[in-house]
Amino acid sequence: METSPDARLVLDADERAERGARAAELAADLDRGDIVAVALTWVDVSGITRTKTVPVTRLPHAASWGVGMSPVFDVFLLDDSIVSGRYVGGPTGDLRLHPDLDRLVPMAALPGWAWAPADRFTQEGAEHPVDARAALRREVARLAEQGCSVRAAFEIEWAVSDGDDGEGDGSDWEDFTPACNGPAYGMTRISELSGYLRDLLKALAATGVSVEQLHPEYAEGQLELSVAAENPVGAADTAVLVRETIRAVSFEHGLAASFSPKVLAGSVGNGAHVHLSLWREDEAEGPVNTMSGGEGPYGMSAAGEAFTAGILDHLPALLAVGAPSVASYLRLIPSHWAGAFACWGLENREAALRFVTGALGERAAAANLEVKCFDASANPYLALAGLLAAGRAGIAGEATLPPPVDVDPATLDFMERAGLGISELPSSLAESVAAFESDPVLPAAFGEALSDTIATVRRGEIALFEDASPEEIAATTRWRH
């Protein structure tokens, strides 16, 4: 099997047999644990988690030969309408979903069910060219060729709603009725939802998710959960698992969870901030965090600074995968801690890139970069693949950072911002798509088929909401992701 970072995995007879044998052992364990079915999930280009499920007895066959699925799902819009691109579209064709057995886990929030993220292959056994998870794996491999690795994690923000009648019976979730009424960040919200949050933390622990903190957020009914950093593919998988666990526990309590970037048109939206740290292997010390211990800004090494600068340079294009919905731009506005300006700063929550050193004494492990302008309508695999590609380009070009920004950029006038190299990020999805298509790095990293499909879906959503009001955009998007 080829080992080039750009090589596409191909399932040969030996690989299929090995996967099937391992799945048979795992299926027996699941059966003994009263698991009856496995949900195989993938995230489409519009950011929605889709699934096919198999009974536990069919898991070995699914592992060896996959489960059939139409490629057309890659051009579904968030309302389930379908567009067509140069590479994907129409009713013909087939691909195969293969469970990643390393991430197979019983879902405590859905008794009797297990979950595994799916990799998508052609019928001939080659990685499908529009598979986002494979695109992220390739970016991880490309960085590894340079002696680098990344640890990453998504912050998960969501707003929780009672049934529309306010009784909490889950009878009608078309509208949004906050399930808690306490002040922003207030302990009152924990008290109001203590049973729900207790069950959520228990379910996540039972599925192997390492939760680092949970707290009320700013908007009505809004909460946030942070998890431990891991390798990028694992971080994206965990983001999917956490959100589906939140959704399931919410339903069990007669509630509904919205991950939309704009739950209500006049309120603060949900972000999905990404935390990243770049690591390099040292012969004497082992893995070393390049975001600390160096001579660059706030202790960054040259590699850490270049990685960060690469992401900053490509932020307008990155929004096409990190803030990929029309609703994203209702959230991405100045002075709302959404990171609407292309700049960076130490602990600056109005900068698109917030640099975090961590507390004195643990900085060698804790220093990281937070990308604040991304939200949960993003496919997490595409979002991370784009960030890694941009950071990799920064390393290759030995990019350097402009001066850090220590104020809200919105408080500066145009000339002051220009003098500091600060620009406002795209204010519409159309601007982000244009930046993406003209970017010299991201389309090449993703490949022609995936890049065309991303742009096609984005243009489809722009057309879908062409005449919609902010209220209509928020209402249509509210329960989709």
From TrEMBL:
Keywords of this entry: Ligase
Domain GS catalytic: 132-481
Short name of one Pfam family: Gln-synt_C
Any Gene Ontology biological process: glutamine biosynthetic process
Keyword Transcription regulation: no
Domain of life per record: Bacteria
GO molecular function list: glutamine synthetase activity
Protein family (similarity comment): Belongs to the glutamine synthetase family.
Record-linked PANTHER family: GAMMA-GLUTAMYLPUTRESCINE SYNTHETASE, TYPE-1 GLUTAMINE SYNTHETASE 2
Protein name as catalogued: Glutamine synthetase
Species whose genome carries this gene: Actinomadura rudentiformis
Lineage, uppermost ranks: Bacteria, Bacillati, Actinomycetota, Actinomycetes, Streptosporangiales
